[in-house]
């Protein structure tokens, strides 16, 4: 406990219930924080790169997750340390913003912290370090823009996009069929992309998984899959040229929001009430039929009577469809979501070329495919795999690939991967450091050293001699003035990342540097940690 | 300065070698657990549940065993998961997949100890799995064109599947049952149309396949026990009291006489409903929900057979068999499709009365009645039969067939071995290890049968050196035999699924270098 004592050994009471709180101050605080940050980074370090290993995480409920994705690992890790939580946040914001590079950003932040620790030991004020890092990150940012390349693609030439997605996927467990998955991801993104506005709404891409089969069976469906079956077992399993009524109201008598009571005191009333009730059901089904719908998709359930009436009138229906799916169906089929039966009109119906129910395996797993939609802007990636964990991990990997493809459509600048960008930045920052007068110069140099840690980790994970490889690549970059030399993780035989086709997006890399620097700055500025001690 | 505390209390973290060791040991323990159940001479396990009643299950089915285990080791959970998926997807081979994954990991452990990087092992395994699959693809036999041969293939597969189960004594009988049942499905994989009824008593031999449909229900009192040329209405409707569904309605009366009136109206309503149902011109009414005494009496008066409380599956099946539709409203009798069958009668099996529908319009569904000495035997028999049915229905769709008795493993091992010799680099060790893991399966089969596995497997290997050999382990005679002559076959789909999922699982576990276990969620102390 860091308490202040007077000359008689009595503690000063400054904070309420001071004894029951742990308090860390000054250099100690910074060092503990740095150690915590480094510990988190160390966990992720081995997951970096194409030869990175996975982590197995057991949740409080005993569920198992096996993953390679930095953001997922940190999120599930259940950390208690405040600084560690900051790192978790860091990875998460990279995930939200870019979607890929979640491991890299944490490793970078860890390296920056490690360097900062050394500077602190030499007596440099943390704020000066933070400012130095800030300057350095700006240099690196600009340098990245400088070495970035525009690359051209269009709807017909998707090869560059596929290559980039493959770089992302190669570090995941799915790298066995990265080519086909990358193609699927790119096709999916292009299907929903608005190339003129350079915008992609990833919500339009649904990723659905089902255990069984093998990874190679993963497919892209230009339409929607709903994990539901027809409400009545005897309804037709296949509907051609479906006209779909999308309803958010239940097939039930209306329930007014205001409180009311219908009192029955005579037999007549009882009878009329009953007739009324039957009429409701009949009317509802009739309305759907009248507007020409051949399939009803309902957000709510309907009871047996309504179910049979629908069946009877030859109107197949799907019930309990979730809100998000409903929206996607509406987008895909060009229909409108109708909240009241009264508002159902023929124009509001969605259209799909084919709706079919498909059964899987030996259990009664059924899914509904809605294909050949009027508006093919909504697509579904349907993942198959040997077990649940595989599917989950594939989902995460596909998500990363989708994000990368989207980023490229937004901004088609790329930098080369394999640590080449980091090495190049390191060189640039190192060179620029000398121009800065003052203590910041040291911090800038430290930043340059920290940049080296990403390629170093890559080399280490690939089983290469880290220092040897890094210095070789670095000297090659300077000698040949070629910022595309990186670590040859896959043992292909060349250091030139252009030949290996390893790309990363520019904004992803830039974001990584900015976010890592920001968090490190924040951690450095903390000089007092007051936490309530355990009970 | 050491990090104070990164994780929450009780959360643990295991790294590097330790993590890998923990997952290897866990996975191998699971594989060893189910290992002894493999093959025709495999032994069963008794599982006692922790729930109330301590019910006991005796089984040989890998998926069932693993499902009932409470496992803490994360890697072991992965194996349990693949076994479950195998069960859902193809139905059989649930033990093999776990054993193969366990063997792959056992071999991988040796390689890791020999300082080969897990990533290298993984890439070797991948190549090997692909090669093994191709080897199988080359050897498959497809008899789809020839109906006669195809049926005999199915028969063989069913017998092979059943031979490792409790039904092995009467495997011919049951294989025939299963094949007949699946052939009736005409290519659909909807096993729900096959109903399995278990009735204790008699012996397993007394089990039979019924062409019609048997409903485990009694006929209402005072209603006809036998109906010829029945017209059946299958319904799902409330036959107790119809609730008023309009929200907020309630009965409010001020005198007793009013209550009586309302009650009368309610009865009237039910009577009307019954009248409407009878107006369909039916003589049998099957409802999913309860039928109260009052409507039952009305039905009895009208000479209509009313069956209540058929469960949901029963209703669906019945609708499927008789070709009727499941009705919930009865206002337009002319357009409701009624089910039909030649004869409904009450039959006795053992001491129980059941309702038998025969001569149905659509012959897709059928019922298998299982008889046996105790409920444990019956449960296990049902599981075995389910396995056989699953495999058969999958085979009907994908009719490629392989020999059994360790033959596919030998073929794969041979191909993989050859590949290992051709592959340069460290990968070849992993490929070689893959072939050793494949060989473990015939070894275990032989071991479980109490045979000299080393002798047998080496003999097998020599036999397989010749191209096109059909040699496998003949457990009955305890020697190497010709699988084609012995008629031991397996479905290609099952073997492929075993191979691919086992490799995938092994790969997944190998890639892990750190295990982080969160603190278990605290249960509220209810003391």
From TrEMBL, chain A:
It comes from the Eukaryota. GO terms for cellular component: chaperonin-containing T-complex. InterPro entries: Chap_CCT_epsi, Chaperone_TCP-1, Chaperonin_TCP-1_CS, Cpn60/GroEL/TCP-1, GroEL-like_apical_dom_sf, GROEL-like_equatorial_sf, TCP-1-like_intermed_sf, TCP-1_chaperonin. PROSITE patterns: TCP1_1, TCP1_2, TCP1_3. Signal peptide: none annotated. It holds the Pfam family Cpn60_TCP1. One of its GO terms (molecular function) is unfolded protein binding. Its main location: cytoplasm. It is found in: Cytoplasm, Cytoskeleton, Microtubule organizing center, Centrosome. It catalyses: ATP + H2O = ADP + phosphate + H(+). Keywords: Acetylation, ATP-binding, Chaperone, Cytoplasm, Cytoskeleton, Hydrolase, Isopeptide bond, Nucleotide-binding, Phosphoprotein, Ubl conjugation. Component of the chaperonin-containing T-complex (TRiC), a molecular chaperone complex that assists the folding of actin, tubulin and other proteins upon ATP hydrolysis. The TRiC complex mediates the folding of WRAP53/TCAB1, thereby regulating telomere maintenance. As part of the TRiC complex may play a role in the assembly of BBSome, a complex involved in ciliogenesis regulating transports vesicles to the cilia. Belongs to the TCP-1 chaperonin family. NCBIfam families: chap_CCT_epsi (TIGR02343), thermosome_alpha (NF041082), thermosome_beta (NF041083). Component of the chaperonin-containing T-complex (TRiC), a hexadecamer composed of two identical back-to-back stacked rings enclosing a protein folding chamber. Each ring is made up of eight different subunits: TCP1/CCT1, CCT2, CCT3, CCT4, CCT5, CCT6A/CCT6, CCT7, CCT8. Interacts with PACRG. Interacts with DNAAF4. Interacts with DLEC1. Interacts with SPMAP2. Heterooligomeric complex of about 850 to 900 kDa that forms two stacked rings, 12 to 16 nm in diameter. This is T-complex protein 1 subunit epsilon. It comes from Coffea canephora (Robusta coffee).
UniProtKB/TrEMBL annotation, chain B:
It is found in: Cytoplasm. Pfam families: Cpn60_TCP1. Keywords: ATP-binding, Chaperone, Cytoplasm, Nucleotide-binding. InterPro entries: Chap_CCT_beta (IPR012716), Chaperone_TCP-1 (IPR017998), Chaperonin_TCP-1_CS (IPR002194), Cpn60/GroEL/TCP-1 (IPR002423), GroEL-like_apical_dom_sf (IPR027409), GROEL-like_equatorial_sf (IPR027413), TCP-1-like_intermed_sf (IPR027410), TCP-1_chaperonin (IPR053374). GO terms for cellular component: chaperonin-containing T-complex. Its main location: cytoplasm. One of its GO terms (molecular function) is ATP binding. It comes from the Eukaryota. The keyword Cytoplasm applies. PROSITE patterns: TCP1_1, TCP1_2, TCP1_3. NCBIfam families: chap_CCT_beta (TIGR02341), thermosome_alpha (NF041082), thermosome_beta (NF041083). Belongs to the TCP-1 chaperonin family. Molecular chaperone; assists the folding of proteins upon ATP hydrolysis. Known to play a role, in vitro, in the folding of actin and tubulin. This is CCT-beta.
């Amino acid at each position: 406990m860091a308490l202040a004592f007077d000359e008689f050994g009595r503690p000063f009471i400054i904070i309420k219930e001071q004894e029951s709180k742990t308090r860390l101050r000054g250099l100690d605080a910074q060092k503990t924080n740095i150690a915590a940050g480094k510990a988190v980074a160390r966990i992720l370090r081995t997951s970096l790169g194409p030869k990175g290993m996975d982590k197995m995480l057991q949740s409080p409920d005993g569920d198992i997750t096996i993953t390679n994705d930095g953001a997922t690992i940190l999120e599930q890790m259940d950390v208690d340390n405040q600084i560690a939580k900051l790192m978790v946040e860091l990875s998460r914001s990279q995930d939200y913003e870019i979607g890929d590079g979640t491991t890299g950003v944490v490793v970078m932040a860890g390296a920056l912290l490690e360097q900062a620790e050394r500077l602190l030991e030499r007596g440099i004020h943390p704020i000066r370090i933070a400012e130095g890092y800030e300057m350095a990150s700006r240099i690196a940012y600009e340098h990245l823009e400088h070495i970035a390349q525009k690359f051209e693609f269009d709807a017909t030439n998707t090869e560059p996009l596929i290559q980039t997605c493959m770089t992302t996927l190669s570090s995941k467990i799915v790298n066995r069929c990265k080519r086909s998955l990358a193609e699927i991801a790119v096709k999916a993104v292009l299907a929903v992309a608005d190339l003129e506005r350079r915008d992609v709404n990833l919500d339009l891409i649904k990723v659905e998984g089902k255990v069984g089969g093998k990874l190679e069976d993963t497919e892209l469906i230009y339409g929607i899959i709903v994990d539901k079956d027809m409400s009545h077992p005897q309804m037709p399993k296949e509907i051609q040229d479906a006209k779909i009524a999308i309803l958010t109201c239940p097939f039930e008598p209306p329930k007014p929001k205001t409180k009311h009571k219908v009192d029955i005191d005579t037999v007549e009333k009882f009878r009329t009430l009953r007739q009324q009730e039957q009429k409701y059901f009949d009317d509802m089904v009739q309305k759907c039929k009248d507007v020409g719908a051949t399939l009803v998709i309902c957000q709510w359930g309907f009871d047996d009577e309504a179910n049979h009436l629908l069946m009877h009138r030859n109107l197949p229906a799907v019930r309990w469809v979730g809100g998000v799916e409903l929206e996607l169906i509406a987008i895909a089929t060009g229909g409108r979501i109708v909240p009241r039966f009264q508002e159902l009109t023929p124009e509001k119906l969605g259209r799909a070329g084919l709706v079919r129910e498909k059964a899987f395996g030996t259990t009664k797993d059924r899914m509904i495919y809605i294909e050949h939609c009027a508006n093919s802007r909504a697509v579904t990636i349907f993942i198959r795999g040997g077990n649940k964990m595989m599917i989950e991990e594939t989902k995460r990997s596909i998500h990363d690939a989708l994000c990368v493809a989207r980023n490229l459509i937004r901004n088609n600048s790329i930098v080369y991967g394999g640590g080449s960008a980091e090495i190049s930045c390191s060189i640039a920052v190192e060179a620029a450091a000398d121009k800065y007068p003052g203590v910041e110069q040291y911090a800038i140099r430290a930043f340059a050293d920290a940049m080296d840690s990403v390629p170093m980790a890559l080399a280490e994970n690939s089983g290469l001699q880290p220092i040897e490889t890094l210095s070789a690549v670095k000297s090659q970059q300077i000698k040949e003035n070629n910022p595309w030399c990186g670590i040859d993780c896959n043992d292909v035989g060349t250091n030139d990342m252009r030949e290996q086709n390893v790309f990363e997006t520019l904004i992803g890399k830039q974001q990584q540097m900015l976010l890592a620097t920001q968090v490190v700055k924040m951690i450095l500025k903390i000089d007092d940690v007051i936490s309530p001690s355990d009970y | 300065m050491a990090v104070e505390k990164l994780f929450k209390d009780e959360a643990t973290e295991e790294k590097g070698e330790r993590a890998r060791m923990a997952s290897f040991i866990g996975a191998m323990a699971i594989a060893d657990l189910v290992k002894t159940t493999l093959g025709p001479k495999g032994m069963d396990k008794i599982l006692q549940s922790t729930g109330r009643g301590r019910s006991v299950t005796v089984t040989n089915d890998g998926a069932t065993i693993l499902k009932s285990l409470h496992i803490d080791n994360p890697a072991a959970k992965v194996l349990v998961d693949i076994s479950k998926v195998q069960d859902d997807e193809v139905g059989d081979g649930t033990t093999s997949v776990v054993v193969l994954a366990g063997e792959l990991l056992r071999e991988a452990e040796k390689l890791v100890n020999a300082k080969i990087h897990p990533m290298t092992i993984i890439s070797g395994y991948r190549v090997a799995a692909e090669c093994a699959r191709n080897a199988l693809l080359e050897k498959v036999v497809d008899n789809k064109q020839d109906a006669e041969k195809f049926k005999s293939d199915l028969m063989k597969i069913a017998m092979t599947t059943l031979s490792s189960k409790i039904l092995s004594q009467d495997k011919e009988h049951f294989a025939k049952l299963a094949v007949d049942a699946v052939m009736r499905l005409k290519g659909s994989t909807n096993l729900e149309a096959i109903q399995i009824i278990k009735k204790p008593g008699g012996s397993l031999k007394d089990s039979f396949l019924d062409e019609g449909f048997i409903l485990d229900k009694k006929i209402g009192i005072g209603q006809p026990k036998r109906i010829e040329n029945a017209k059946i209405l299958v319904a799902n409707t409330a036959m107790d009291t119809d609730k008023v569904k309009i929200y907020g309605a309630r009965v409010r009366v001020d005198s007793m006489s009013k209550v009586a009136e309302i009650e009368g109206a309610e009865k009237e309503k039910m009577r009307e409903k019954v009248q409407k149902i009878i107006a369909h011109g039916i003589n049998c009414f099957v409802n999913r929900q309860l039928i109260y005494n009052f409507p039952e009496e009305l039905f009895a008066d009208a000479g209509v057979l009313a069956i209540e409380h058929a469960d949901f599956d029963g209703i669906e099946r019945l609708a499927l068999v008789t070709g009727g539709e499941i009705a919930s409203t009865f206002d337009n009798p002319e357009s409701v499709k009624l089910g039909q069958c030649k004869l409904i009668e009450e039959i006795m099996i053992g001491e129980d009365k059941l309702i038998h529908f025969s001569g149905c319009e659509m012959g897709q569904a059928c019922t298998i009645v299982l008889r046996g000495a105790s409920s444990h035997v019956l449960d296990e028999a049902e599981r075995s039969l389910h396995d056989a049915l699953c495999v058969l229905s999958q085979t009907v769709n994908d009719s490629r067939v392989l020999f059994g008795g360790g033959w596919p493993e030998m073929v794969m091992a041979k191909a993989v071995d050859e590949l290992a010799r051709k592959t340069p680099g460290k990968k070849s060790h992993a490929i070689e290890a893959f072939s050793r893991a494949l060989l473990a399966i015939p070894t275990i089969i032989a071991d479980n049968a109490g045979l000299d596995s080393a002798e047998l497997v080496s003999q097998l290997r020599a036999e397989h050196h010749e191209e096109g050999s059909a040699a496998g382990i003949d457990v009955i005679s305890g020697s190497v035999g010709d699988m084609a002559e012995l008629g031991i076959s397996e479905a290609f789909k099952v073997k492929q699924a075993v191979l691919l999922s086992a490799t995938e699982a092994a790969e997944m576990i190998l890639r892990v270098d750190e295990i982080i276990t969160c603190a278990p969620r605290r249960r509220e102390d209810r003391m």
